[in-house]
Amino acid sequence: MSGLTLREKRIRMVAYYFVIPALLFFILLNAYPLLTVVWDSFQLINMLNKALSGFSGLSNYVAVLQNENFKAALLHTFIWTILSVAGEYVFGLITALALNQNIRCRALFRGIIIIPWVVPIVIAGMTWTWMLDPNFGIINYWLVKMGIIAQPYNWLGQMNTALYAVIFVNIWRSFPFYTISLLAGLQSVSKDILEAAAIDGAGVRVRFFNVVLPQLKSISLTIIFIHLIWTAINFDFIWVMTEGGPLYATETLPIQIFRYAMQTYNFGYASALASMMLGFMMTAFLLYYFMSVRKTNR
């Protein structure tokens, strides 16, 4: 600061004055609640038994890990996250490639494709719950009419299909985000390089895997990483459609946190599980960040 002129110092001070309100807002809206959750994870906080209070050490974490449904919820979270993100990326890439072609009414299709993404999760979840209903759902009606199934099936009511049905709906709603992002990346791919590769005898498949996909690597890694976090902590879609049922078949870790906090009113357990998820997400973010910095330096 000593080498700066008086005018530059004033400009910096003005910049600080503009940043401080945003910083305070961030602290009040995000940092303080997060620190409160971490602190509560080491406390005995049960709204049904106010006499039970005080410092608990790691007992909340031990109790959460020993819960009979924890391993199943962890597995469901993994399946839910990986299959959702993989399906979203595949469908997003396919539709982006299709919308990048010189087809008639391309602008119209580009506008229509975004509709699932802008539909509120509650409305989308309730609509698909109705469509998948075994008694009057249109999905079962179509499948029976086409001869794919012999009779209506309770997709959300059976333990072996409930989670995959919700994953399918989540993919339907989220893949347009990938489509728009990847479409922007495809439009930045040099046509001269593609034409040169075609002249050299490279086929469509070779051009796609050796020219197009490497150009999409950066944006692909970014949206995949973001959605891994978004999907892992997603609560509302599963809760709207199945509430974690039947018989905990679709219960994920966020659903379990909700049960601890809002059904058994044990905020110590809820905070402990939330802190564990927060720690995992922060670790994943730091690994991704340092790997990105390492590649950039290379």
Any chance you could write out the topology, listing elements then pairs?
Elements lengths: L5 H35 L2 E3 L7 E3 L3 H8 L3 H30 L6 H7 L2 H4 L2 H11 L6 H8 L16 H25 L4 H9 L4 H12 L1 H16 L3 H6 L11 H10 L4 H31 L1
Antiparallel strand pairs: 1-2
How would you describe this structure to a colleague?
It is found in: Cell membrane. Its main location: membrane. Keywords: Cell membrane, Membrane, Transmembrane, Transmembrane helix, Transport. This protein is an all-alpha fold and 298 residues long. It has a domain at 70-250: MetI-like fold. Helices cover 71% and strands 2% of the residues. The protein is built from 14 helices and two strands; from the N terminus they run αββααααααααααααα. The protein has helices spanning 6-40, 59-66, 70-99, 106-112, 115-118, 121-131, 138-145, 162-186, 191-199, 204-215, 217-232, 236-241, 253-262, 267-297, and strands spanning 43-45, 53-55. The chain has a two-stranded antiparallel ribbon. α1 (6-40) packs across α14 (267-297), α3 runs antiparallel to α11 and α13 (253-262) packs antiparallel against α14 (267-297). The longest helix is centred in the first third of the chain and has 35 residues, at 6-40. The radius of gyration is 25 Å and the shape is flat. The two termini are 33 Å apart. The model has no long low-confidence stretch (mean pLDDT 89).
